[in-house]
Amino acid sequence: MAKDKYDFIKELLEDKKINQNQRERILELASREISLAGTLEERVQKIEEIVFNEKIEGNKPTNENLKSETKHDPSKVTNYLKKFKENTALKFTTHIWDLNKYEKIIDFIDELNEDKSHTELFSCNRNLYNLIQYFIYNPNQKLNELGIPEFGWRNFPEIRIGWQFPNDLLINWCRENYDNQDNKKTAFEYSLPKEFKPKKPIKGKMITTFENVADVFKTEIQFRDNYLYNELKKRQNKMKDFDFVDIDKFENLDFYTYTSGVLSAIDTILNEIKKNETAKMIHFSYKFESDELLFDIAHINSYSHRQLNENNLLQFLGGGLNSIYADIISLCDFSVISKFKNTDNKVLNAELCILHNETKAVWEGKELKLISQPILRETTEEIKGFTYRLKFRI
Amino acid sequence: MKILFLEDRPSRQKQFLPNQDKDVEKLKSISELFMPEGAKCKSIISEINSELYQFENIDLQLIIVHKSALETKGLAYLNKICKEKKLKLVCFSGGTSQIVFNNEEFDFLYLNSSDFYTERLIPFLEKAIIDKEYNLLEITSVQWKLSYLLLARQIIGSIKMEDDEDSKLRLETKLQQIRQLIDINDITQLDKEIAKNILKK
Q1: Among residues of chain A, what percentage have pLDDT more than 90?
Q2: ipTM
């Protein structure tokens, strides 16, 4: 269907003069137009999606303009995520309420919606933006062909409820159970309706209340309470023929980041490491440098065999490295440190900075492509093997 | 000073402690408990966050701190200090809904502020000053041992049936932690311990 017809439907639906019958008639006709079978509810969802997407996502690329520039700005993302521990409305999306703070649920929701800073995350890290949008605001409700939300929780599409979605379900419950009540119940006490309870545990726990949802969300925006350590241990259990050195040092390491993005990058790194079956030792370490956390994964005694063209460093990228930078763009700087061979076969001890201060990238459909060159820095630090370095702002 | 207690939002003490002002005054009067207020408290936290605070007091055994006041670096610094000096560490915060206990390298307890500021806190601190043989879990319940024994028995049963990888790992980790606290090797021994603890009550 041409885009002008979507506009037409949108205008009609927004017209307050039309009555319910007319509205349903529009939806019925529109559903025929886009050849969508299914119940009226599903058709409404499809039409709403069309209307809604254009309404709230003005800063998103249109179909005609799929190439959109992405900023690599880890400080912006970290500073945003740290607002969840400051005395802001964001904090109270995950934090037990002081009952005197908000008289009515709508006071809280209004304060939440006043803060538009999350919209800037769209051009930084889309998966994080989608997560925040889904948990706190009104998400894009598009489903893929399997009926899974395309813009929901990246690894946990079974979670289909947030503070304001769907249909003010939670807000309405709070109106009845929090507003003007002597015995106030906060949103965290909301017992999820059957259709919103994931059938399987998520991160090892059954999700039955909104508090459970908030608890999972907390570990999506922060490595906390041994989450990173446990995730490393899980991967160690799956790669028993490799030696994971020093993961115990990651106990109690807390920091804000989009954890699913980082864990996905770690998985890709480990898959790359598995390709060299002769070197079986992986050393995990971290250190602080000023306000940065340097997280290194070193594949001991394994070095790059590919030639590094110093005149076009982008040529070195591809495969796993592309996937890694796409996952962690704007979450942390990313570099690889190794003994490289240049095109003259000269060995360089160097750090190839892939995501750095001057990185520019564009989304081409679902693929993120770097359009700026990596930076090569010779290094004097001891190189024990091909090392992946993630540098977080803390 | 045997206990360093860092609370950057003291109004919470009044809010949660059962006898409010009276309990706050009692807290302040405990000898060997150093609970700095206002700017002094903030300054110590800031020094911890910058890894500059020197834990030189040789009598110090326990650090209690509001976790949200700590930055990533500050918490890592406290972990390092507690490992090196074998200190116990209690973190409380409104942002957690669970109790985390770990005693692998040093004793560490993390719990919600409302579970921390209870009628058990003052007796716990008084005991910790005079008796080296105390367990951080006494803050959570006087019957912590019985609770953990029962939990251990429940976990042993659940692990066998669990097929979700994350759930299994969570249960195994918890069981391992309990085993470090309570020396139990089999279910018969566990049952005996449970009976003993119930009778003791």
Answers
A1: 63
A2: 0.85
**Partners of residue A288 in chain B, C-beta under 8 Å:** 51, 72-73, 76
B139 domain-assigned: no
In this structure, the answer to whether residues B40 and B110 fall within a common structural domain is yes
Q: What is the pLDDT of residue A36?
A: 47
**Which residues form the domain of B115?**
2-134
| Structural domains of chain B, count | 2
- pLDDT of amino acid A68: 79
Enter the tokens of residue B61: 């055994």
Same domain, B101 and B148: no
Q: B51: domain CATH number? A: 3.40.50
Instruction: Give the pLDDT score at B15.
Output: 86
Q: Which residues of A touch B71 (CB under 8 A)?
A: 394
Contact B73 A394 (CB under 8 A): yes
Kindly report the nearest CA distance between residue B201 and chain A, in angstroms: 32
Residues B152 and B120 grouped into a single domain: no
Asked if residue B191 and residue B112 are part of one domain, the reply reads no
pLDDT tens track for B100-154: 888 888 999 999 999 999 999 999 999 999 987 899 999 999 888 898 889 998 8
* Cα gap B55→B76, rounded to integer Å: 14
Tell me, yes or no, if B143 comes closer than 8 A to chain A by beta carbon: no
Residue spans of chain B under pLDDT 70: 201
On whether both B127 and B165 belong to a single domain, the answer is: no
CA distance A378 to chain B (A): 28
Inter-chain residue contact B71 with A215, CB threshold 8 Å: no
Taking the CA of residue B168 as centre, how many other CA atoms within 13 Å lie in the half-sphere pointing to its CB?
Answer: 10
Higher-pLDDT residue of A114 and A167 is A114
* Whether B95 contacts chain A with CB within 8 A: yes
Same domain, B130 and B152: no
